[in-house]
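JOB MANIFEST
job_type = single_chain_structure
chain_count = 1
residues = 398
[input]
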Amino acid sequence: MSEPSRDEVQVVWDPVFNGYDFGRWHPMAPVRLELTARLCADLGLFDRPGVSVVGAEPADDDLLRMVHDPAYVEAVKAASADPQQAQAVFGLGTEDDPAFPGMHEAAARIVGGSVDLGRALVAGRTRHGVNFTGGMHHAKPGCASGFCVYNDAAAAIVAMLRDGAERVVYVDLDCHHGDGTEAVFWDDPRVLTISVHESGTTLFPGTGFADELGGPGALGGAVNLALPARTGDGGWLRAVHAVVPQLVRSFAPDVLVTQHGCDTHALDPLGHLRVSVDAQRVAAASMHALAHEASGGRWLALGGGGYEVVDVVPRTWAHLVAEASQQPLDPTTPVPAAWREHVRRTFGREAPTAMTDGEPATFTGWESGYDPDDAVDRAILATRRAAFPLHGLDPDFD
């Protein structure tokens, strides 16, 4: 496999991605993408040396069928041409995934962006790739689910495996269980999926518990850490760092793929975690460092959920882009006045003035010891005891 290029990151963006639009009242509002891109531009992130902003063409049918059933792809096309004919049997035309004109092309373009980045990583044309329009982790081979039509993360991983990668780790930090991506690789020993999320006892999709470990051909290939509702920065970061780095190092992937859904935030209207922008920034920095440690620097970072479209999504993903560009933003960096004025004109509200929530985003590492009275620690230990031995790791000490 080619060595990664130096000091280069490709970021997928073009206003055409705003075409992924379920309608005016849907939580997955495309304005979150536009505001993220505008904030990145106003902060000068897109103009940094070594940063390339790239568009993408829609993935073709052959590429989509690497992950999705042919009948499902045809159903998406039909619903795209005539939304009134959407078939609920494929998860289309539902409240979560209403059909809309041009849906196939819009969803396929997101796939195209992530696949292009993945192939560039394997070929050594870039060191890092960021597609904040992607991370559609609920889409399954035969149906849409949870605002996701096609699974770009899974398609990118399959494409990288076909292009020469032998092992890939997928880490999902969204508030919701990354069930669709997990399902695609459930019995594939070449791919390790790790999802740290709010427990399915309190949140969609109701799955992702510690005993969900993969198929008979890849036992241990799926790892799930289900956190209690209202987990805040310290518990969330402790959980991520008590499970993810150890497993990634053990698996030794050629590429690290991470999903950065920011619906973990305390202000998000759909989730029940209490994470700050500051903790999300710390997690992104940790994934970046882990890619350099474990996968030769090859890092594909994706967006995902996130439904507080002004205060949370743009700042979180701007930090992600800055991190991938090798020049993280100081949390106290002021939010540009031009961006805040745009928010004022567009939404009639005030925007945050700095790139921080003012939280320290600190945590105590697992080496401090297990607290049986703490619900987060109980969740961590359940996952470690279920998954770590399958990777040759000691759940109590590694």
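[summary]
The chain is about 35% helix and 10% strand.
The chain has a mean pLDDT of 97.
exit_status = 0
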